Amino acid sequence: MTLTLGHYLGMSAILFAIGLAGALTRRNAINVLMSIEIMFNAGILNLIAAWHFRYFESLTPQLFAVFAVTIAAAESALGLALVIAVYRHYRSVNVEEMTALRG
Amino acid sequence: MSDHAQHLQQLAAQQWLIPFFPLVAAAIQSLLPRSARRLSATLTILAMGMSCLLAARAFWATLPVGEQHDEVARAFFNFTWFRFGTTALEFGFILDPLTAGMALMVAFVGFWIFVNATGYMAEDENFTRFFCFLSLFAASMLGLVVANNLLLLFMCWELVGLCSYLLIGFWYFKPSAAAAMKKAFITTRVGDIGFFIGILMLYQHTGTLTLYNAEGTGALQQAGSLGQLAGWWGLSLAGTIALMLFIGAMGKSAQFPLHVWLPDAMEGPTPVSALIHAATMVAAGVFMVGRMFALFTANAGDWVMDFVMWIGCITALFSATIAVAQFDIKRVLAYSTCSQLGFMMMALGAGGLVAGQFHLLTHAFFKALLFLGSGCVIIGTHHEQDMRRMGGLRKYMPITFWCYLVGMLALAGVPPFAGFFSKDEILVATYHHNKLAWVLATAAAFLTAFYMTRQMFMVFGGTWRGGQHDAHGNETTGHDEHHGHAHHEPHEVSWNMWLPLVVLSVFAVFMGWLGTPWLAGNLFHHYLAPEMPAPEHANIVVVLSVVVGAAGILLGWLIYGRRPMQHAAEPDPLAGTLGGLFTVLNRKWYVDELYEATIVRATQALGTLFRAVDKLVVDGILHAIAWIWWGVSQLFRWIGDELIINGGFDAGCESVRGGGRLLARLQNGRVQTYLRVMALGAVVLVAIYFFR
Amino acid sequence: MNAPILSLITFAPFVGALVVLALPKEADRAIKWVALVSSLISSVLAVIALAQFDPAGGLQFVERVRWIPALNVDYHLGVDGLSMGMVLLTALITPLALLAHWKLIEGVKLFFVLFLFLQVGMFGVFTALNFFHWFIFWEIGLIPMFFLIRIWGAEERHYASLKFFLYTLAGSLGMLLAFAFIYLATENFDFVALQQQAASGELRRALGVLVTDIERVTGSEWDVGTLLNVMFWATFLGFAIKVPIWPFHTWLPDAHTQAPTGGSMVLAAILLKMGVYGFLRIVLPIFPDQVVANLTPLLLLAVASVVLGAFAALAQNDFKRLVAYSSVNHMGYAMLGIFAAVAFAPDVKDVVNEKAAALNGAILQMFNHGISSAALFFLVGVVYERTHTRQLDEYGGLRKVLPIYAGVLGISMFSSLGLPGLNGFVGEFLVFKGAFPVVPWAAMLSLIGLVVTAVFLLQMMQKVCFGPLNPRWAELPDMTGRELFIGAVLMLFMFGIGIYPQPMLALSNDAALWLIGMFEQRPDAVLTMVP
Lengths: 103, 692, 531
Known about the structure:
By secondary structure, chain B is an all-alpha fold. Chain B has 28 helices and 2 strands. In chain B, 70% of the residues lie in helices and 3% in strands. By secondary structure, chain C is mostly helical.
């Protein structure tokens, strides 16, 4: 069985759906963060798949992918820092309780 | 102008110096510290001595010389005080026998009173202040005497009132003194309103207040023409003015019914009483009537003279009855002063200018003597004033006793003492004028002799009844500060206190001789009023006067001298005989109570009324107006602003606010809700993309 | 006159106020000194003006600059014998009032700025000769006083300040309206011109033209005489409230009682005089016929002020309130003198001099009352600072611990009472001397006031200084050097005027004669007006 673009995209869609479901349903901020990471990775997988099957001779998509990974790492670090800060303030990481920006 | 007239003129221009020295002394003393006691007393006495010398010089100059026997020596000096409109108000000083005699008396008696005061006030902490007030008092009184202007006279008159206010209230910490000082000022002020009206009328109709001027247009020089014009109440204009002036004199000279302040004025230190009741303040009224006598006599048909006589007569008898039933040594003398002033006024009213002024002078000497004597008694008995707790002082205070005796005999009208001659003159003048008044005055003379005898026996006769305080309760008399040594035996006073008594006694003995018809045809009359005919002598008056005097003394001896009081708590022998009447007399015919119930109460009620009027009516109307405005503005607010303007605007605002509140619900702050919406949105977008 | 000395006098405190505003809030001492100095500059200039003043010269130091041509308004200043004394009084009392608050701690900057503005207003009222800016100055006086009472006042300051402000403001509205009518008729706001037009009958004629215009436009019936009468009473009300004449006086005790010491001093000494001055400068010259026609009610009101004011004072138990009522009483004498001076009395011998006495007396009485009431209010303040009570019943025997204070209070009290030798007597004597022949009944009724004045003042003295010492006050300190200085300056004037009043009378005599002459020369008009 050869892996086609459709497989990759399907895998990516599944990963994204899992991430989205986690981000929407999880109460723990860490879990939400992890879910977001999964959604990120789904996107990167999409990018790599598209490069591999359509623009193999170009290096730009790869660079984009690497760039996105770096961004993701930085984002997760920032996210974790925020979570820790929030935890210090609320003594909780339950996102349901963080409603200070309510209108 | 003769040499003599020129000399008088010069002296008149210097008359201002007489009050000037005490005035300067007062000004200096007002700045001295409390500790400058010796300096202060020295200044006062020195200044008074200077005034006395100047007054003596002036007096000497007015003595009749050479041929001019039937003309009064009179000189004056006028100057402008201020200008208004197209005229000026002139002030001036005068030198004539009336002024010269009076000034000399005031300065001389005042001098000795001051000397006595150095002893009486020796222990007082406000010694300096006291002498400052005394100096001012003397300056005011001397200014009054030398004034050739009714306004200047009135100003000094008021200043005399001020000084008496200050001195009566010298022991201001005593509530009774604080009340008495106010009473004295206000009572005399009531009379002063009359005086003031008189001044205004005189000024209006003569155009000047200067009494004499060189052009002959002085106020008194116009008295004759004023007598021809019609005034109020059936009087001539001159009579009306005279009546108004006399009301002022009634206040100052404590004539019935304005006499109430004088006995209360005993709250002041005794030298003050001597000064007020003998030499100065009360004399001012009599002096003023004498000074303005031309107005009183301007129209023979006026009833003003009768009014003066009857007021004097009533006062003389009325006060004498009260004096009979008093126990305070100074109060007896105070009512006696009232009574004697009544005599003087009566004499003036009967046309006896000379008699009235002569009694004023002699009375000044022996009444000052009596008051200073009572001051010595008070000091000698350690601030005791109740005669029931005295007695036997003859033994302890012989000098005071003898001097007091002279004063008493003079006051009782025993020949040959001064009071006999002057009182006799008065009785003669009254006898010729009105027989009823003469009878009443003789009765008053009888009472005078009686109450003075009573006082003598109570104070000096019998045995010492002091030190019985405990048996009698603890009434406070005198002032509290010196109460420490109240149980000691009485003692004679120091020389600076008794020396004035001795000097004044000499005058109380001999001064009357100046006015006797048997000596050079009444010297004093020729001096004071050579143009007036001397009243014809009447033997019945003289005889009766001597008889009632003797009878009064005899009766006094019968009641008080034969069996002296043994104990301070003993009732007065007279109280048993007179019964309820004695209480009425002791309570001064309840005049104070009557005033308290009527005038004082009414004044206070008016005050309360007008305060209430302000608060309730005037402010009430104001507040009503304010409320109406407030109501109207509220009305406009509700109908105009709130309903229409605010109503429409508010509705718009409210809807915006409501919408905002609704939308704000979406933003609940939960990240996941936002994400869900976002996801939903993405799904919708994708759906639209695909199924378009 | 080269230097605009009146403008300098008027605006020196304004400059001072600007400087004070620029100073930092904490610089208490600098603020106080700047305020005092700028106020003193005015005083010095006023004295210089006095030295060059010629009593017989009519209006002097005149400054006249075209200001608003469209409205025919000039900036017009000048003083004559009627106003010179008042300018001097303002120059004298305001620095003393500032000095009285030398120890103020709270809100120093605002207090002194307000005070300087107040002084500008007061000088302006006494120097202005054009209704336009005169009215501005008149109202300027209100605002600082309102805040002085409201911020530094006693317990009921809100009520008092509001009453003071609204009452006075409401009173001046009628006056404003009256002048609006005058302006419509004459197109003129200038006092001098209006006085001449009133004297020549031109004012009445111009108003007649205006009235016919109004009648044509509106179709209603108007009467010139009635209109003038209404205008007169409207103007009268504005000044009567300020004076204050009974029964428009009830704001005064409240305002005085609540105001801070310096405020009371200035209020009594100067603001009240603005009302009386208004009568001299505006009511008498511009409405002469109406004054004469309404003389009986006017005199009745003056007498009521004298008598009822005195009686009401008698029943007060608040030290300051009592002194405030004495102001009503004393201003009554001034009004009596002014109304007597314009009364029509052809039978009286030498009537011009009688009236001159009354009017000079009234003007002197204004000055005298300024001195004595300022002293009394200051002394109330002195004792209030120490005891924090104004209730007369709570004092007693203070002479024992405060002998100097008692002496100063006594002299001030006797000055107010009208004791000869002190200033009050001369003014009162002249007023009565003039009023007695001209309007005997009013003078006789007012004499009751003289007795009652004595009663309430002596009662006050007795309650404060005499009797046994209330032990609560056993430790009170006597007057300080600064306080004694203020008292001494005022006493100097009391004695000075009392002993030699000629300089003060010389200041006003010619102006008084001029004013009286205005009335004496028009007996015809007067006769037709008298009902």
